[in-house]
Amino acid sequence: MNAIRILALGDIVGRSGRHIVRDRLSHLVTMHSVDLVIANGENAAHGRGITKEVAKELFSYGIHVITTGNHIWRFKDIISMLTLEERLLRPANFPPGSEGSGHCIVRVKDFPICVINLQGRIYMRAIDCPFRKFDEIYERVQSEACIIIIDFHAEATSEKKAMGWYVDGRASALFGTHTHVQTADETILPGGTAYITDIGMTGAQDSVIGMDKEKSIKNFLLHSYESHEVAQGLATICGILLEIGCDGKAKKIERINCS
Ligand SMILES: [Fe+2]
Predict the structure, then answer these.
(1) Residue ranges with CB less than 5 Å from ion ligand 1
(2) Measuring CA to CA, how many Å separate 86 from each of 66, 82, 93, 170, 216?
(3) CATH superfamily name and code, 3-205+236-258
(4) pTM of this structure
């Protein structure tokens, strides 16, 4: 095999996001000859968090690895699944002792691929250093898997950019999630790492990052706190398509944005 083709989907938001994955993923996989599907599922249940049932639903649509982020603990029933299902990840730089794992190795056509989930620290809750956590995992997995894919769930573009340069030449790809807005800076860095600051969101198009726009506007206008609701209507799938050589170097990164 000359290359592995990987599809990474941006944060799946609520039912709108889940349903477009259900309706469109198999077509995308066939059309692009995708070998591995990774998706961020941390907003998949009611717009914030993920439940065991929802994680099973996403796996059933053909997603191989689910990454998450800051809303992972919202529904307690996910904890038992995190400890049992190695393809469901929480950020690796959560404190030692946290349930679940932040990386896994999956085999694609007998080829080992390591997926790592990290979370940023700028404008987010204080956790361990994602840079040093990457070093630690890299030391452990580099002899086992030469393809390493990272979902860096972070708010600040500066932290994401810095992390991209930090892992260049060691990881095959680093993509950002969490802001739900796709950026247009996809590139292959000099060391062979594919990079994009944020791959965007999979959810309702006419929304405020996947949530009902009227409620969101009201919150901004009146300084009130309307409970957020997942927006309905036409949905969009945002993500990236990666082509990674068997030497672990990225050959291609292409943005996906379709409804
Ligand atoms: Fe998030």
Answers:
(1) 69-70, 178
(2) 10, 7, 16, 23, 36
(3) Metallo-dependent phosphatases (3.60.21.10)
(4) 0.96
